[in-house]
Design a protein that fits this description.
This protein is α/β, with parallel strands linked by helices. It has 6 helices and 5 strands; from the N terminus they run βαβααβαβαβα. The radius of gyration is 16 Å and the shape is globular.
Length: 149
Amino acid sequence: MTLNVYLSGEIHTDWREQIVTGAEGLDVSFHGPVTDHSASDDCGVNILGAEPDKFWHDHKGAQMNAIRTRKGISDADVVVVRFGEQYKQWNAAFDAGYAAALGKSLIVLHGPGHAHALKEVDAAALAVAQEPSQVVEILRYVLTGKLPG
């Protein structure tokens, strides 16, 4: 069995790399959003033309990024959504809701400080992890049936 996993959410830490590295040897294909913050913010105006109003600047970028996000989540077997500590990730909450609406297997990843704020998102998930290593162990168990250790 091969799993197609979409890694969504915060882009300021190396959580994605931790999961990809930890899952080496497993039959997993990883995908995700553009994590270059400047490219993600400015893709719309760089490709479609400048916007004097910041709202329309951001709107163009959000629409272009949504093409990749929708495709990635739609094609995924498992969607992992990470909520970081530093910023409010409204886009991550949207991705989790979109994945849940599509009936995707959803793993939410966040620290204990977000448990109350994300209780509805967590309720839609099949697993709520606090560390990237736990996501790796979930994937390993799903693919092999083996428990850690």
